[in-house]
Amino acid sequence: MIDVLLARLPYVGSVVLVAVGLFVLVDDENLVKKVLGLNVFQTGVFLLFVTAAYRTGADPPIVTADGGPYANPLPQVLVLTAIVVGVSVTAVALALTVRIYREYGTLREDVLREELADE
């Protein structure tokens, strides 16, 4: 069993990152910690894409005389695009968090819900 887990360590790592990020998103009341949980979740998904696309002994996708296995560049391009989108989402989320803190003086979700219910 240990040998199987060690052989698939990147997959196990991506599942752990996704699980930790999802747990923080669902469980924590602090908005900044939720943004960090979202980043951990995204990192797990990125690791899963890169791990799934990895091929041992693959050549760059340039047509040559030999017909060896080629590496598919599409997953890496998707991950790079997702990283850019993730950074943008993080920046907007943190900007909204700063605005919420200036308006209400707290970042706890339960306190915010109580204040919004009172208004």
UniProtKB/TrEMBL annotation:
It is found in: Membrane. It comes from the Archaea. InterPro entries: CPA3_antiporter_subunitC (IPR050601), NUOK/Mnh_C1-like (IPR039428). Keywords: Membrane, Transmembrane, Transmembrane helix. The keyword RNA-binding does not apply. GO terms for cellular component: membrane. Its main location: membrane. PANTHER family: ANTIPORTER SUBUNIT MNHC2-RELATED, MULTISUBUNIT SODIUM_HYDROGEN ANTIPORTER, MNHC SUBUNIT. This is Cation:proton antiporter subunit C. The lineage of its organism: Archaea, Methanobacteriati, Methanobacteriota, Stenosarchaea group, Halobacteria.
